[in-house]
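Before relying on records like the one below, remember that each one covers exactly one chain. Contacts with other chains, cofactors or solvent are not represented anywhere in the record.
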Amino acid sequence: MNVQINNVSDTRKNVVVTLDQGEVDAVHQSVVAEVVKQARLPGFRPGKAPAAMIAKRFAKEIEDDFKQKVVTKAYRDSLEQQKLNVVNVVDVKEGEIKAGAAAEVTITVDTYPEFTLPTYTGIATEVAAVEVSDEEVSRIIDSIRAERAEFKVAERPAAKGDYVKLAYEGTVDGKAIAEIAPDKQIYGKVPQTWEEVEGANEGVIPGLGKELAGLKTGDTKNVTVNFPADFAAVPALAGKTAVYAVSVQEIRERVLPAMDEAFFKANQADDLAGLQTSVRNNIKLQKEQQNRNEQRRQVTEKLADSVEFSVPESLVERETQAVLRQFIEENMRRGVPQDQFEKDKKELFEGAKKAAARRVKVQLILTKIADAEKIQVSESDIDTFIYRESMRTQQKPDKLVKALTSDRDQLRAVQQNIIFDKAVDFLVSKATVSTVQPKAS
């Protein structure tokens, strides 16, 4: 066997394998012998039929198996001979493969990059202070009260925090928005809806809530709305100035619940002091979790920046598709229309590919660290994954176990992700930490 390696890139190689006639014939003979052993022909006991008869009767099956085994031999023996660390087989091109002649097979493979790990212990990280102020506690308690608020009819002009029931109809340069965007009726004409007056979060129509203060039930008003230039929800309205004819139907004011025994009991507390303690502890836990997440981001980013190497193209291609799927799913949930993705297709792909290359680089570094530190997946790691996934997807654990045991690729992906997570946890445990105090406002 002769093996020639042609470098396409740092991580992609064309492996040209030539098997001599003797090697090819040995494979052919072993295939025929196996068929003779297994074949059943009338008048002959198993394994006793003449080889020539078997070869003629099962010529197609023998030829297919013979070619496959020659290719497999070329691949396996060349990898062993050249000590190639293959990520993926990208392409296989066969020359003519027949008994009595030499054969050539060209295999294109992506290989793992060679690089030296940078120092990965003692990475400097910064975290925010986790002390909780009285103001933070008060804000959370106020928000809890707001969630349990009642809304009562108000016989007065609308004020900040009120909810107004109204009807509206919009036009742009005198043309009805219902005609401009017929598939987005909520932006054109609505007979009844609710809008918060000067709310922290804007409603469907940008800035509409800010124009409702001072209006009374029965009032009408023309409200001018300037849609942002990048208004993805309705591209036809992007950058346009619209006029909405608003008719107020009802005003309701927010009435917060009293801070009494019933309120405290509903929030698993005995009194105000108990509620404050509970809220303070929850805020602190959230801040600690945010710090952990931030440390994980910092150590992986610094690792990726500290070493340079080429990443296998096939891994980047696969990861690019995963990044695109995640991005599109998230934005579709936000209401971004499908045609917007088509419009920005080139930019989206370029951005996803760049992010994917970064992800793959980090994963390769983490894999090497896991090997160096002998980080492995235990049964309890798998059990924890199954428990969390069953909670997230509302599936029975038995169903998830069955899916993993029947799909080796899925199980391998789960194990790999667990390794990545454990490697990052290891890096965080070995990082140096400094606390950054919040800037005075």
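The chain has three domains: 2-111, 150-255, 266-436.
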